[in-house]
Amino acid sequence: MQEKVDVILKEVEEAKANTQEELEQFRLKFISKKSVVGDLFAELKNVPNDQKKAFGMKVNEVKQAAQAKFKALIDNLETSIQGGASDHEDLTLPSAGHTLGSMHPLNYIRSQIIEIFERIGFNVADGPEIEDDFHNFTALNFPENHPAREMQDTFFIEKNPDILLRTHTSNVQVRLMQKQKPPIRSIMPGRVYRNEAISARAHCVFHQVEGLYIDKNVSFVDLKQTLYHFAKEMFGKDTKVRFRPSYFPFTEPSAEIDISCQICKGDGCQLCKYTGWVEIAGSGMVDPNVLANCGIDNEEYTGFAFGMGIERISQLKFRVNDLRLYTENDVRFLKQFSTLH
Ligand code: DAH
């Protein structure tokens, strides 16, 4: 009897578990109810009375040894699974190092634009990407048969009444004017969607920043000065800015804003199509109809608005000429911006 106990004790002491399975085998053999230790307890009743006490103590000793060993085996196995040092590892090797992520260029440009406008008193507003016809088109004075409403430009989610993916951030202007009394001085960055085939020069998802300033006596001079300031802050103080007459349904008068080409500094190159100028934004005085559509008294208030593409600004800053790069998440592209913060 005594011998049998000693054999079991020795087995417990020498046991090893390199895998979960081996650990489970140990548990079944030495810890569970039907284990060999359990059998020893069952045999207690066959031991002569005068030896019962000594045998009982011995079996208890085996039980405790088995439990202690089980715990040690668990600890051991966990450290080796978590990559603890084993005999095969060379602790003197240098570590593999950590790869840090970097800021996406569009996020960087977006936060630069926000910073510039925040410093002159604009706050940031947000609005939905899934929009109704009223906020994306009707309130903004789009005539019923305007081509931008047609299927080739807009992703419709539902028809009659129309629910769509916003085609520009101008929808946030409308929402802002509906819920806030002037003065309003906000910029509205966001993602917009158009039903375009994806190529180097067009994408169905891109980003804009909208600007809106509504107060008493806001004039075209305020618009010009604000955007001069922006262009010089963003591209440097030698940057030239020009306003070109244009048309948008929601502004009157309207203007497109060009800056001197950042690549050739005005000498003429492929990017500026040899004109020396590149367009960065659309803008204008908010059409009185739009103010009225949004519940703002157009006798008392005037305002200006502008909208620019973040990808466009990024193209001029970083010379990224293929729009697809922004959404492909190729680390070879993204890594090139690792110094931005
Ligand atoms: N919504 C125009 C677009 O997507 C951009 C724009 C032009 C916004 C003039 C404006 C603006 O607020 O005044 O092309």
TrEMBL record:
Protein location: Cytoplasm
Gene3D superfamilies cross-referenced by the UniProt entry: Bira Bifunctional Protein, Domain 2
First-tier enzyme category under EC: ligase
Residues that hold Mg(2+) according to the record: 252
Cellular component annotations (GO), alphabetically ordered: cytoplasm
Catalyzed chemical reaction(s): tRNA(Phe) + L-phenylalanine + ATP = L-phenylalanyl-tRNA(Phe) + AMP + diphosphate + H(+)
UniProt keyword list: Aminoacyl-tRNA synthetase, ATP-binding, Cytoplasm, Ligase, Magnesium, Metal-binding, Nucleotide-binding, Protein biosynthesis
UniProt-listed InterPro entries: aa-tRNA-synth_II (IPR006195), aa-tRNA-synth_II/BPL/LPL (IPR045864), Phe-tRNA-synth_IIc_asu (IPR004529), Phe-tRNA_ligase_II_N (IPR004188), Phe_tRNA_ligase_alpha1_bac (IPR022911), Phenylalanyl-tRNA_Synthase (IPR002319), tRNA-bd_arm (IPR010978)
A single BP term in Gene Ontology: phenylalanyl-tRNA aminoacylation
Cofactor names: Mg(2+)
Domain Aminoacyl-transfer RNA synthetases class-II family profile: 109-313
Binding note for cofactor: Binds 2 magnesium ions per tetramer.
Enzyme Commission number: 6.1.1.20
GO molecular function: ATP binding; magnesium ion binding; phenylalanine-tRNA ligase activity; tRNA binding
Subunit-structure text: Tetramer of two alpha and two beta subunits.
Family note: Belongs to the class-II aminoacyl-tRNA synthetase family. Phe-tRNA synthetase alpha subunit type 1 subfamily.
HAMAP family the record matches: Phe_tRNA_synth_alpha1 (MF_00281)
PANTHER family: PHENYLALANINE--TRNA LIGASE, MITOCHONDRIAL, PHENYLALANYL-TRNA SYNTHETASE
Name of the protein: Phenylalanine--tRNA ligase alpha subunit
Organism of this sequence: Fulvivirga marina
Gene that this polypeptide is encoded by: pheS
